[in-house]
Write a structure and sequence with these properties.
- The chain is of the alpha+beta class.
- It has a single domain, classed as Hypothetical Protein Pfu-838710-001 (Beta Barrel), CATH 2.40.320.
- Helices cover 22% and strands 39% of the residues.
- Strand 2 and strand 3 form a beta hairpin.
Length: 199
């Protein structure tokens, strides 16, 4: 059964992905291994995650604004739950792959002015508007997404929050849940939402 989270979630999962990790500015740098797939039946995926004992962080209406960057991807996320400036580098290939992620926490009321500043300096590439259902099982974060203009997707992110797991273990966790959720290879999607909307 999924338990709604208040404050720190039961089972050790954080309410927000940003944990500070010893940085006084609250910046989080970590390694993810993640996989994205198209999802024909989001409710079935949610039901399966309930069976597996997932902890429910809730549904977040997220607006991600992508800006021009010399390397990787840079986006400002404004949401009801998650609010970050995010830079990440990830190869575009299907199946579980590593991402080097840097998260800088922001406040919801900062997004408009910060977005204007970044847009003026770097230019806006694309805006991604989605409803994201966020769930956790241990070090694995699940997104069941409804993306405006694209449809439904599921994402699995194995997160090395403490820097102790390593890429091989993260990849193993990703493959485990790809199997448990019955994700087919033909449904795997290598491209980011920003790339899909920018086609």
């Amino acid at each position: 059964m999924i338990a709604k989270a208040k404050g720190r979630l039961r089972g050790g999962a954080p309410k927000l992905l940003v944990t500070g990790m010893g940085d006084p500015a609250g910046v989080s740098r970590h390694l993810n291994v993640e996989v994205k797939a198209r999802c024909a039946d989001p409710e079935a995926v949610l039901a399966r995650l309930r069976e597996l004992g997932a902890i429910d962080q809730g549904v977040d209406h997220q607006v991600d604004t992508y800006f021009g960057a010399r390397s990787g991807r840079l986006k400002l996320r404004a949401g009801d739950i998650e609010n970050h400036l995010i830079h990440y580098q990830r190869p575009d290939r299907p199946g579980p792959g590593p991402s080097a992620v840097t998260l800088y926490p922001t406040r919801p009321n900062e997004a408009p002015e910060l977005g204007e500043l970044l847009a003026g300096a770097l230019g806006v590439l694309v805006v991604v508007d989605k409803q994201r259902h966020i769930l956790w099982i241990g070090d694995v974060k699940f997104h069941v997404d409804q993306v405006e203009g694209l449809g439904s997707f599921v994402e699995i992110e194995a997160v090395d929050r403490a820097g102790t797991l390593g890429e091989d273990r993260l990849r193993e966790l990703c493959y485990r849940y790809v199997g448990l959720l019955g994700i087919s290879e033909v449904d795997l999607e290598a491209r980011s939402y920003s790339d899909l909307l920018g086609l």
